[in-house]
Automatic annotation (TrEMBL):
Gene Ontology molecular-function annotations: ATP binding
Keyword hit for Hydrolase: no
Species this protein is from: Candidatus Amunia macphersoniae
Keywords in alphabetical order: ATP-binding, Nucleotide-binding
Amino acid composition bias (Low complexity), ranges on this chain: 387-399
InterPro entries assigned to the protein according to its UniProt record, in alphabetical order: HATPase_C_sf
Protein known as: ATP-binding protein
Pfam family, one: HATPase_c_3
Lineage: superkingdom: Bacteria
Amino acid sequence: MTAEVVHLRIGNLRKAVLVTGQAYQEPKDALNEFVSNAADEYAEAGRTGCTITIHLRRNARRSVIAVSDDGRGLTADRLRHVARNLFESAKAGDDRTVGEKAIGVLAFQQLGGRCDIVSRTATSAETHRLSLMRGEADALLAVEKRRARATAGTTVYISDLDPEVLRVLTLRKVVEYLRLRRVAALARGDYEIEVIEGAHSERVVPHRHEGVHLKIGARTTLWGRIDFALWAAPRAAGVRRRVAVVGRGGTTVIDDIAELEDFSGPPWNLDQLAGSITFPPLQQSTGRRAILRDRDVFPVFLEMVRSIEPAVSAAVDHINRQAESESSGRIADEVRRIFGRVLRELDEIANPMRTALGETSGDGALFTQPIDALRADAEPSADDRLPPLSSTPSETSTPRGDPADTADPASPSGRVARLPTVAPDEQPGNARSRFDEQTGIVYYNRDHDDYLLVKGEEAALLDYLVQLVAKEYVVFNNPRSTGAELAEEMVRMLVRLRRHVPRSTGARVGRRRQLGEV
């Protein structure tokens, strides 16, 4: 038997039309196709800053969605061409536009049972309508009287909406969705989008990223230019940051580049990077929710993104070190405040670093030397000095917190002691912390598993460092005590300390200083 050429054909056109319209993951993706058509019209006309309007009417009896533009409009012949040339797009190869498959009009079937494309050109006195029904292989072309447009442009009406669509397509959800999916185009000012529901309306504005804008220049490839708009910020509890991958027409293809296995690790998955990477030649899936791994364009995309990873990682590390340094300074101040209150409660002002057990080790004074704070030029605040024993706050004529500089430093009654301070250990061992008797500083181990567990949240980190200082305080001043005695004394200290540890460090510790460019 000789080889036979068998031509493919669609056995059931109605079913093919229906299945094609179901290629989108959710109703918002289907709605996005009609926004893309309006955006493409402005792009082809060379117009920027124009408005795309979305009307939502979710009334159970007469529900409808309308997407309008003020573009050039479609003649009757062009509407006829739309119906007769599915899968053959005149936009293919035009990087200004999103459409390339000529099937977006069928997306209405995932929203409702009917779609009316109502359009008028500037040179026509008539408005024409192309009507399509779900699962039908024929469309109806007619002159529109009831919804005739007064000016040029196109309005797409989707009616007979499904119940799930009525629940999902609220004004707030549509705005948030389009803000993510249209981030690059909106930021460039290609067009504006307004969503209206009843008496309420809201414009879709691009998200303003926080943190440091990374100055990474565009890369030129054989397939076109790839642009990087990236911001880096310290990690924050409950804040998710993502880098979107943007394709043709400024439309987001992937919300988070970390969804790609090739970029599922640092620095992309740390919730510290936001922004977008734009490469129009990327091939998109039918539902515009995935990148096609073709042999030509996708490898170039991988190579270019990998080429910037070292610079991005270095920027993230720099920001983390800066944020950690600022946080350490604030937390060190808070540790001193907490210990000052507890030591006053324990009535140990004259010998502030002695516990009930005691027994030598530096006469019980863990922090009696005039230690500098985390910064070498820092001066002690009023709360950083303790009054001598003979002058309690209720008895002395000296204002509370003033240093007794004229007292004899050799006598116990004249001692002026700095409150405890903490600093990262540049030469850590295996322990969580160590006390340096020469400098009087408690150094903490930033590589310890327990520190890594709490460092991302200031409240947890403060609690952890307070415990470390308490440990060093108790151990240093009770060298001859048994393990049980040390444990009891540790509990005594922690019970009092934790009464003064704030549950939230936001108000006490203060805001992070806004980071600049790197």
